[in-house]
Amino acid sequence: MSQPPLRVLHVAAGNLFGGIERMLLTIVSARQGDGVHEVAVSFDGRLARELRAAGSAPHVLGAARFRRPDSVWRARRVLSRRLAAARPDAVICHAPWSAALAGPVVRRAGLPLLMYAHDAPDPHGWPERRLARLPPDRCVCNSQHTAAAIARWLPDVPRDVVHPPVAAAIAITAEERRALRAGLGAGDGTTVILMASRLEEWKGQRVLLAAAERLRGDATVWIAGGAQRPAEALYLDELVRLAARSAIDVRFLGERNDVPSLMAAADVYCQPNTTPEPFGIAFVEALAAGVPVVTTAFGGALEIVDDTCGVLVDTASAAPFAAALQELIDSPARRASLAAAAPSRAHRVSDPIARLSDLHRVVRADLARTSAA
After folding, report:
1. What are phi and psi of 244, to 5 degrees?
2. Which of 68, 90, 122, 252 is the most buried (most CB within 10 A)?
3. Which domain holds residue 358?
4. Is the pLDDT of residue 304 over 80?
């Protein structure tokens, strides 16, 4: 006898846009038959707008800031009403901040509280300190790398690894690809090196620009991502100054809503992380588009990229990244070989239907565990 579909409410901050937000869009768009997923956000930002555009309007709790207790109380009252009205089977909070906000309400409602861990926690951070006093029933971790960090922080909380579901690559025609590349200064023979990520220093934009100073030949670097915080705006100013020294063309594309098209138009995806990437949704997106990935050999990247579909560089410094990129610029055949294997690798790691099925199994297992307790 088939089970009724799971009803899951996801809670996220919603003030920024990155990998978590792209994953949530994939979840609500996948329409997996054994699960009904809704999203609640605190801030009515880009994620909320894109959810509405996808036909899955979020529940907006209100802009909660813990330094203003009244805003937290209001957001929690809105969430409490939503839980009473919808009565989901479980609530999944994305990251410690969201779990600290929603946890007390979910507990009072008598519902299972799960946290999807997207990064290694900072045990000294205030959201983590709050959460340690009221831990979730279960942690879903986006990688083995993240799971190891969660085990050190919350050793008594059950945890499972479910790689994030990542949407299939979009298809663009040869003419559309040519037009997009030409509009960004790249000819048919130009090797386009793309990086699309948040403007945070550990993502490695500075390393990529230092590597670009050493590159030769017909190549260009596209850096996609807009400043979402004041510190990111200052960092962007520094990057623009560094790019002026590059021997090849470097273009800053700002915030884009067409990253899948950029992936399809690129030849190489390069992200020289200086600290471990917890997972790396952009890596999977690039591979799904048939674009080989060059990144640093640690963290979640080791669970995504191997030598069939990309290049793992031992250290996040200019010389080894320049060498790896130069090899791909000089060898179209090598790029083509890696590109051919990339989509199947992306499918194995983050196929949306398979990973949502994994997530549903984890939630059902926790429901069974709490019912038996």
Report:
1. -65, -20
2. 90
3. 6-165+351-372
4. yes
Does 180 score more than 60 pLDDT? yes
Which helix (H) or strand (E) element contains residue 83? helix 69-86
Instruction: Report how far residue 129's alpha carbon sits from residue 319's, in angstroms, rounded to the nearest whole number.
Output: 40
Distances (CA, A) of 22 to 47, 51, 163: 8, 10, 13
Give the three-class secondary structure for 45. Answer: coil
- pLDDT band with cut points at 50, 70 and 90 for residue 32: low
Q: Taking the alpha carbons of 269, 272, 273, 277 in that order, is the dihedral positive or negative?
A: positive
Whether residues 153 and 189 fall in one domain: no
Contacts of residue 58, Cβ cutoff 8 Å, sequence gap at least 6: 14, 38, 39, 40, 41, 47, 48, 51, 52
CA angle 290, 146, 363 (to 5 degrees): 90
Distance CA 308, CA 286 (A): 14
Residues 26 and 46: beta-carbon distance below 8 Å? no
Map tokens 């010389």 to a residue: 319
Are 8 and 93 in contact by the 8 Å Cβ rule? The answer is no
Residues 162-180: b if buried by 16+ CB within 10 A, e if exposed:
bbbbbbbbeebeeeeeeeb
φ and ψ at residue 274, rounded to 5 degrees: -95, -20
68 and 29 in one domain? yes
The pair of three-digit structure tokens given for residue 299, joined into one six-digit string = 């963290």
Q: How confident is the model at residue 2 (pLDDT cuts 50, 70, 90)?
A: low
What does the pLDDT average to over 165-176?
93
Strand partners, 251: 222
* pTM > 0.90: yes
276 — pLDDT class (breaks 50, 70, 90): very high
Structure-block tokens of residue 181: 């590349």
Give yes or no for residue 31 having a pLDDT over 80. Answer: no
CATH label of the domain that carries residue 361: 3.40.50.2000
State how many domains the chain has: 2
Other CB atoms within a 10 A radius of the CB of residue 362 amount to 22
Average pLDDT over residues 216-221: 96
Answer yes or no: is 40 within a domain. yes
